[in-house]
Structure formats: C-alpha cells, structure tokens
Amino acid sequence: MPYTSVRRAARETVSGLPREFWWLWTSTLVNRLGAFVATFMALYLTLERGYSASYAGLVASLHGLGGVISSLGAGVMTDRLGRRPTLLIAQSSTAVSVALLGFMHDPVSIAGVAFLVGMASNASRPAVQAMMADIVKPEDRVRAFSLNYWAINMGFAVSSTAAGFIAEVSYLAGFLIEAGMTMLCAVVVFVKLPESRPEQVHKEAGEPEVGLRTVLRDGRFMSVVGLSFLVALIFQQGFVGLPVAMGAAGFTPADYGLVIAVNGVLIVVLQLPVTRFIQDRDPRRLLVVSSLLAGYGFGLTAFAGSVGVFALTICVWTLAEIVNAPTQTSIVVRLSPAQGRGRYQGMYTMSWSVAALVAPLMSGVVIDRYGAEWLWGLCAVVGTVAGLGYGLLMRKLPPDEDATSAGRPEVPASAPVSERAA
C-alpha cells in the first residue's frame, strides 16, 4: 500500500474525535505503560519472597475477587458521584495500594493488600467506558473503543517487556514506578477531563431511577453479559490454559513467551486497520463471527505440535479478539440508558472479572482429568454457543441514538417491560 494511502487511512482513523477523548486515551496509555505488577507478581512471590506456587495462585485469585466486587460498586459510583470523581478515587487508591504492596512481607498482609489492589484497579473501568460513551458520538464509538483497546495493548506490550528488566534490578522499583504512573493518570484526569455525566433530565418526567435491580431485570442486556462471560472464558485460556498445556507437552516458558507475544503484536498492528473495516458493519454478524473464531481458534490448539502451529492458532483467536472487543463494548453502550451507564458498564466489566476467576479452575480441572485436547474442544463448543446466542439476541437491535439526549436507545413496544422501563 502506498505511503499516502497509509497516511490517509491513519488520519481518517483518528480524526473527528473530541479532545476530551484523547486525554482519556492518554490516561489509559500511561496507566498500561506502568502496569508492571501484574506481569511479575507470580515471579515476585515465588522467587523473591520464596512462597509456593499455590500461595501465588491464591493471591492472584484474591486480586481477581477484588475486581469482581468493585465492578458493581464502581458502576454505582460512576452514576451517582460522576465519572471524574470515580476515576480520581480509583486511580489514587490504586497508586497508594500498589506502593503499599511493595513494602508488605507478611503473607496475610500481601494477600490482603493484593485484594485491595484488585478492587482499586478495576474500579476505573466502568467510569472510563461510561465517560467515553458520553463524549463520543454514537457513529464514532466503535472506532473510539477500538483506539482505547489499542492503547491498552500497546501499553501492555511495552510494560511487559520493561517489567523483566526492572525486576532484575529491583522488584520494589516496579511497584513504585507503577504507583507513580497511576498517580500521573489521576493528575491528567483532574487537570484535563471535565465531568461528562448527563444531567438527570428524565427524573422530572417521572421516569424510574436506574438502579442495579433495573440492570438485572433487563433481560436482553443480562443475556449479553452472560455471552460476554462465555467469550471472556475462552480468551482467558490464552493466559491460563495455554501455558499449562504447553508446559505439559514439553515446551519451555520461553516458547510460550514467544507464541503469546504474537497476540500483542497482532493487536498493535491490526487493531486500527481492522476497525476501519468493521466500524460500519452489522454488529450482530461481527459478534457471531468473532465468537466462532475465538472458539475454533482455541479448538485448533488441540492439533498444535510445534511453536509455529501454536502461533498460527493464536493468530486466529487474536483476530477474534480484535473484532469482538470494540464491537461488544459499543453494544453495551447501545443497550444502556444514559443515566445508568455506570451500572451497566460495571455489570459488563464484572463478566470479565468473573471469567478471570473461573478460567484457571476450568483449565486446571479439565487438563488434569481429561487432557488438554478436551479443554480446546470445550472452547470450540463454548464459542459455538456464544455465536448462536449473539445471533438470536441481537435481532432487532435498538438503533444507536445519542443516549445523552434520548436517555435510552429506542426499544420496540413489543419488548419486555423490563427493557422499556429501564
């Protein structure tokens, strides 16, 4: 492709988005650039502190449990306090708890603070996604969410590489650097980002307040959350089931590191051009296709016997991830009322947090009892179920109106009372 065409495509991908979005995007990038602790936490506990692998797994589970609990709480805060205060509280708390974790030595203290880190670090996600939906026009949301996802993976690719070098010098330095960069994100939010929460214009009209009960009664949305959990369960296997299966097959940690790096590289290289291709296409088809690609991409792992074949399977499910992430997030926004975006995003975020808890148990039990081939076959089945589910649920999808002025995307009169009442 000629240089001028590449330049024009890049300009069209990033143009037309508000300045506030780019400050939020910058905050996300800085946050992920400093995400060292998640990368080397297991090595820190087992090599530096001398704890067992079981204890390291317990700490990881407590970290995930903190994320599950905070997802809903942060969603409520996002709607009640506002997007900006929630981000400030979450990022400041993350910075303090991460720094504190670096000074903990007692196993109980480490586990407790890791739980707090999980709560604080996940609390910003509903606020970020709700604010992004507030400030970006409906027709640009897929592109905006894709750019944000690209920033997350770009930052992670850099931080995961840097984490190894920092750990060789000082693990404590990694904790303190992450704390400092997270606090820098809070400064960016405080200085550059205004509050974007829509005014409660519908309250005077006698419309019911959007609460967690409203979210739970929204049948279509909760079905999407359930399908999101299934898809997340598949993607998590790339980081919990795949390394275990490769190790059992005689491959080294370096082999796994090499093949999983393909995931990050492909996302960084392909996220923007793929977004240009999908942004105006039917989201229902995109979700169906991405679910099937994810399931059968992992299913093909059952036939992998070399590093090269493992890398090829990762190419398949990474393409699914590139398509699924921005499309699914934009669907969540479309199904959410403006006054309840925080709660809806919190529920959606929780589906991924719960998947992060369940996936290690799922992969361990299946691999130990039946073998890795059964795990990959199960992924193919789960992907098929998710694809069929999206195909059925996304029929007559509500139009993507600007919810900040309409309150809620229009729902047909024949829809269940819970959807129209929301």
UniProtKB/TrEMBL annotation:
<keyword id="KW-1133">Transmembrane helix</keyword>
<feature type="transmembrane region" description="Helical">
    <location>
        <begin position="256"/>
        <end position="274"/>
    </location>
</feature>
<feature type="domain" description="Major facilitator superfamily (MFS) profile">
    <location>
        <begin position="20"/>
        <end position="398"/>
    </location>
</feature>
<keyword id="KW-0813">Transport</keyword>
<keyword id="KW-1003">Cell membrane</keyword>
<feature type="transmembrane region" description="Helical">
    <location>
        <begin position="347"/>
        <end position="367"/>
    </location>
</feature>
<keyword id="KW-0812">Transmembrane</keyword>
<dbReference type="InterPro" id="IPR036259">
    <property type="entry name" value="MFS_trans_sf"/>
</dbReference>
<feature type="transmembrane region" description="Helical">
    <location>
        <begin position="286"/>
        <end position="319"/>
    </location>
</feature>
<dbReference type="InterPro" id="IPR011701">
    <property type="entry name" value="MFS"/>
</dbReference>
<feature type="transmembrane region" description="Helical">
    <location>
        <begin position="221"/>
        <end position="244"/>
    </location>
</feature>
<feature type="transmembrane region" description="Helical">
    <location>
        <begin position="149"/>
        <end position="167"/>
    </location>
</feature>
<keyword id="KW-0472">Membrane</keyword>
<feature type="transmembrane region" description="Helical">
    <location>
        <begin position="374"/>
        <end position="393"/>
    </location>
</feature>
<feature type="region of interest" description="Disordered">
    <location>
        <begin position="401"/>
        <end position="422"/>
    </location>
</feature>
<dbReference type="InterPro" id="IPR050171">
    <property type="entry name" value="MFS_Transporters"/>
</dbReference>
<feature type="transmembrane region" description="Helical">
    <location>
        <begin position="53"/>
        <end position="74"/>
    </location>
</feature>
<dbReference type="GO" id="GO:0022857">
    <property type="term" value="F:transmembrane transporter activity"/>
</dbReference>
<protein>
    <submittedName>
        <fullName>MFS transporter</fullName>
    </submittedName>
</protein>
<feature type="transmembrane region" description="Helical">
    <location>
        <begin position="173"/>
        <end position="193"/>
    </location>
</feature>
<dbReference type="InterPro" id="IPR020846">
    <property type="entry name" value="MFS_dom"/>
</dbReference>
<dbReference type="GO" id="GO:0005886">
    <property type="term" value="C:plasma membrane"/>
</dbReference>
<feature type="transmembrane region" description="Helical">
    <location>
        <begin position="21"/>
        <end position="47"/>
    </location>
</feature>
<dbReference type="Pfam" id="PF07690">
    <property type="entry name" value="MFS_1"/>
</dbReference>
